[in-house]
Write a structure and sequence with these properties.
This protein has helices at 4-7, 14-27, 56-72, 104-110, 112-115, and strands spanning 31-37, 47-53, 80-82, 89-93, 97-103, 121-122. By secondary structure, it is α+β, with helices and mostly antiparallel strands.
Length: 127
């Protein structure tokens, strides 16, 4: 297990929690994980974390890992989670940030990064 003190952000540090979610996705081999700062153009959240998996099983593993790691770090709990019926696109709304875990085909079809290309990307460091 990694050193939790090094990665535990303050509760209201939404960027810190978004980065922790990105690291959790990366731990389960999430593909091309990005954190996008959408707060300037979207009133409902500050950050999007976008990642993908090759199969519905991997999408499920990534979503479960994000939720578990944030719980271990005493982080925020999701306000709502959608997409657990088929695991093509799991959306986890944590309030200050939203995690999108998509399968590869769904990610390629919706191109969320292109839709939000005018927003800056936040840096994050894998585990």
């Amino acid at each position: 297990m990694r050193d939790q003190t090094a990665v535990t952000p303050h509760l209201t540090d939404w960027l810190g929690w978004a980065r922790a979610a990105a690291r959790a996705a990366d731990d389960k081999l999430g593909n091309e994980t990005v954190v996008i700062e959408v707060g300037e153009v979207m009133a409902v959240t500050d950050y999007f974390v976008i990642t993908s998996g090759g199969t519905s099983r991997q999408v499920r593993a990534i979503a479960d890992e994000v939720e578990e790691q944030l719980m271990i770090l005493d982080g925020p709990k999701p306000l709502r989670v959608e997409g657990r019926d088929d695991y093509r696109w799991v959306l986890m709304d944590f309030g200050g940030f939203v995690v999108h875990v998509l399968n590869e085909d769904t990610r390629a079809f919706y191109e969320l990064e292109r839709l939000w290309s005018d927003c800056p990307r936040a840096s994050w460091t894998p585990s």
